[in-house]
Amino acid sequence: MRVAFIADIHGNGVALDAVLEDIEKRKVDRIAVLGDITFRGPEPKRVLERVRGLPADVIKGNADEWTVRGVRPGEVPEAARGMMNRERRWTAAQLDEEALQYLRDLPESLELELSETIQVHAFHATPESLFDVIPPETGAETMKARMMNRGGIRLFVCAHIHLPYVRYIDGRCIVNTGSVGLPFDGLPQASYALVEAEEDRFRVTIERVPYDVEKVVKQYRDCEYPNADLLIRVVREAKSPAAR
């Protein structure tokens, strides 16, 4: 079985189009979307419609939670919260109530059986939280306790931090998909994870897909997106706004 795991689209429809085109060429058997679908991008409505039209498993991310109820104190630095809630109001205004209810009702985790011996536990940030940040360099014991705490699972897939990685710890594997729409690793290309499994073997690759960044820049400006200048820098430089 071949499964594409995509996440952190963040309303970047141009990047999503490029990723789905790449996925189609690879003839995957299944697609899983690990959250953060609309918020902080110029095309929330089209992106959500495209995701909902896929034959895909979809789970919730923290930004999907923010889209439906706003950013609460303590969830981001207080200096950023006011602007992020302006962005959230703009995003929610592009969606109708039925779309918002869809986001509200999304599950928070996913289990897939790739073969008789290989199961996947997928989630957005950690199995217990949509918001916790676990850096890729986290120590093995902490990683096992926080991210790989389900017995019998050999492969764990997550997202949230916009930094793709593949790590093997005590014979098990944890994968971060990176971000389709807002990568933070310095490479301004969409990122997703491709998992191939057959019997007792599996292979994981991080796929990078170029897309028209300047088209997205123009979209941010044309739609008068709140905080457009910051998000334009992020898509151009592929660096976290927190790193500034």
Explain what the structure shows.
By secondary structure, the chain is an alpha/beta fold. The protein has one domain (about 1-244): Metallo-dependent phosphatases (Purple Acid Phosphatase, chain A, domain 2). It contains eight helices and ten strands. Helix 3 packs across helix 5 (about 95-105) and helix 7 (about 215-220) packs antiparallel against helix 8. The protein is globular, with a radius of gyration of 17 Å. The model has no long low-confidence stretch (mean pLDDT about 95).
CATH architecture: 4-Layer Sandwich
> Going by CATH, what is the homologous superfamily?
Metallo-dependent phosphatases
Radius of gyration, in Å, reads: 17 Å
Largest sheet entry: 5 strands, mixed
Shape call: globular
SSE series: EHEHEHHHEEHEEEEEHH
**What's the CATH class label?**
Alpha Beta
Structural class: alpha/beta
Strand content bin: 15-25%
Total domain modules = 1
